[in-house]
Amino acid sequence: MHKARLEAFSDGVLAILITIMVLDLHIPRGEQLSALLPLLPVFLSYVLSFVYLGIYWNNHHHMLHAARRVSGGVLWANLHLLFWLSLFPFVTGWMGENCFASVPTALYGSVLMMAGIAYWILARALIAAEGKQSILAQAIGADRKGVISVVLYAAALPLAFVHLLLAQAIFVGVALIWLVPDRRIERILPRETD
Amino acid sequence: MHKARLEAFSDGVLAILITIMVLDLHIPRGEQLSALLPLLPVFLSYVLSFVYLGIYWNNHHHMLHAARRVSGGVLWANLHLLFWLSLFPFVTGWMGENCFASVPTALYGSVLMMAGIAYWILARALIAAEGKQSILAQAIGADRKGVISVVLYAAALPLAFVHLLLAQAIFVGVALIWLVPDRRIERILPRETD
Amino acid sequence: MHKARLEAFSDGVLAILITIMVLDLHIPRGEQLSALLPLLPVFLSYVLSFVYLGIYWNNHHHMLHAARRVSGGVLWANLHLLFWLSLFPFVTGWMGENCFASVPTALYGSVLMMAGIAYWILARALIAAEGKQSILAQAIGADRKGVISVVLYAAALPLAFVHLLLAQAIFVGVALIWLVPDRRIERILPRETD
Amino acid sequence: MHKARLEAFSDGVLAILITIMVLDLHIPRGEQLSALLPLLPVFLSYVLSFVYLGIYWNNHHHMLHAARRVSGGVLWANLHLLFWLSLFPFVTGWMGENCFASVPTALYGSVLMMAGIAYWILARALIAAEGKQSILAQAIGADRKGVISVVLYAAALPLAFVHLLLAQAIFVGVALIWLVPDRRIERILPRETD
After folding, report:
1. Helical axes C72-86 vs C88-97, angle rounded to 10°
2. Which of A169-178, B128-137, C24-33, D173-182 shows the lowest per-residue confidence on average (mean pLDDT)?
3. Would you give the distance in Å from CA C171 to the centre of its chain?
4. Which of A16, B105, C133, D29 has its CA 20 to 30 A from that of B33?
5. Cα angle at A128 between A185 and A138, to 5 degrees?
């Protein structure tokens, strides 16, 4: 019951976030193809953020599927994650409208990093509620992938001022790593249910 | 479980898309009926896109109703479909504000085509997860209607520069074909459940 | 299953509509109370539409609660209703920003009337799917309240050009009539479940 | 059934409200960090409102979890609460854009107060539907925390014109009090289910 409503609320917020980002694709004046050209960076940053929010929805989905209990701490850890994700439309729009300049890129990376940390906290809160012997705890384990992502985002912040392209390559690269859904949970779950 | 959350998320995104399009109907200055006149093309493109999103919701609903299992690939194929649908408010607004000019009409058709292809991919991903002997595979079959729609959208792209009205007639015509819900699935399902 | 997803989608659209209307309450320049004054008509029209959408959600909720089957026709009748409701933010904003002038008031009344007719069609589609002996058919019956509302909205259209205040009084009056949830269905249902 | 749809609708509205507030963080011109500076008060008021809406979602969730029946009165009491919450984006934006000036701060406090009162009414409506001996009635009891909050908001209104900082401290302080989920209900529930 608790879990179902937590999922429904998170799905709602994620669905809205992934959709209102498109409002920053302002409809251009002029009917020529050239009128779309200035929108290209905004569009590219939109695609990147769409993929990231899709990844978060996917992993959130898998993690909560493995969870059985939801404590008060989990509710707040989840809201904390949603808070950082809610800043995606803003940082995506700012980065896109400034053609991936240094400061907006670093801010984008900061929000990615904070969301990554918030996801890690949520995983800890869920494990704390489930117990260390739970399926979820085994499935998540040390969460190496999550920790490495946060470290890479952190590295991208100074890089945005030194080697901009490398910082952006990190954002794209980490997204590609995560495009594969969290197999760890899928691997453990069937064993348990056998 | 997995399926329920996939449906809930898709419904959320579709509900938001179908609703935020109305935000491009900017409230006009002036209180006379004549103040509404310039909005007419925007309104017409809104109606067309509302019907298309309604069709997608309807068919998505029917297809997933027949599905039993949701794989990781299905989750991503679904997000891919939602991505193209998320561009509807943008292309609808651009086409409407430029009175159905050639380039915006062609872009609208491109997004329709990409969404059609994404829907086809989603159907394949579902069949791959369900097996070729599943109800779903039988119900969808060769998906002639879907393939013809995509071909017609593709034909509409060059037509938008040669014979604009014909391109628009294709969009309206394909919508009318789809207004009938996917009887194939309804036809097969009862046999199975008997 | 079908019904659950229809309700979820309708709830989503209604929740978004009732919420995005507030975006037409543009944040005023200036920090004095006087800066809010020009917003008063927009606020009042917002309250009226909030109540109307609340009524639709409430009655939609009651009607579908009594329904058991959802046909393809019902899905489209429901989308048709949602289409007219989706125009609420636009007509509400236009009426509010023009201080309840004649033409915007008449347009607001037209959308109310079309939504009323669409609701009536949805009720017929549901009864057709359920059968004339169904609880729903008995509960809705001749739907005198719905028919009278549509007639009153229709009467308000010419009145908006002759006696503006009377037209607005009709909108408020009909809302008050509907504030009471549909007791007919509540009255019949317990009998059946006894 | 009734309860499930009430929760779904409320979750939808709350998810949208908590998300569209971010649209008032207008993307700034300029790519320097200094371009973000004028947004700081808007951001701070966004954080405060995000926390408040999170609290409302959390408590609403707990309260309805303990409820068993939903009457027509409850539906309307719930819509009444959602109405005041729907004004959050507006008052949050106005307060933020005017750097927490007196009148916008007082208006923000008024909406907080009205939402607090609406929540109290909803609790009474639920208790009326459940009966005085119900778990919910015992769990909520005299609702001292809710009453004190409303009194503090009321005190903040005149304070906003005399000692602005104290009024804002009240908003933050009350939020902190509520950050802890409603233990009363959690405390009672297990006893009952034992």
Report:
1. 20
2. D173-182
3. 11
4. B105
5. 30
Note the ipTM here.
Answer: 0.88
pLDDT at B5 over 50: yes
Contact D22, D90 (CB under 8 A): no
Residues in Cβ contact with C36 at an 8 Å cutoff, skipping those fewer than 6 apart: C28, D107
Domain extent, residue B22, equals 2-193
Distance from CA of A194 to the nearest CA of D (A): 31
Under an 8 A CB cutoff, do A12 and D12 touch? yes
For residue B51, count other CB atoms closer than 10 A to its CB: 20
What's residue A177's pLDDT? 86
For residue C65, the chain D residues in CB contact (below 8 A) are 1-2, 5
Q: How many domains does chain D have?
A: 1
Tokens of B103: 């380039």
Q: Kindly report which listed range (A85-89, A142-146, C104-108, D165-169) carries the lowest average pLDDT score.
A: A142-146
For residues D160 and D154, give the distance between their C-alpha atoms in angstroms, rounded to a whole number: 10
CB neighbours of residue C24 within 10 Å: 21
Identity of the amino acid at C6: L
3-state secondary structure chain A: CHHHHHHHHHHHHHHHHHHHHHHHCCCCCCCCHHHHHHHHHHHHHHHHHHHHHHHHHHHHHHHHHHCCCCCHHHHHHHHHHHHHHHCHHHHHHHHHHCCCCHHHHHHHHHHHHHHHHHHHHHHHHHHHHHCCCCHHHHHHCCCHHHHHHHHHHHHHHHHHHHCHHHHHHHHHHHHHHHHCCCHHHHHHHHHHHC
- Chain A partners within 8 Å of D28 (Cβ): 94
| pTM across the whole model | 0.90
Residue C194 has pLDDT above 70, yes or no: no
Query: Which pLDDT score, from 0 to 100, does residue D1 have?
Result: 56
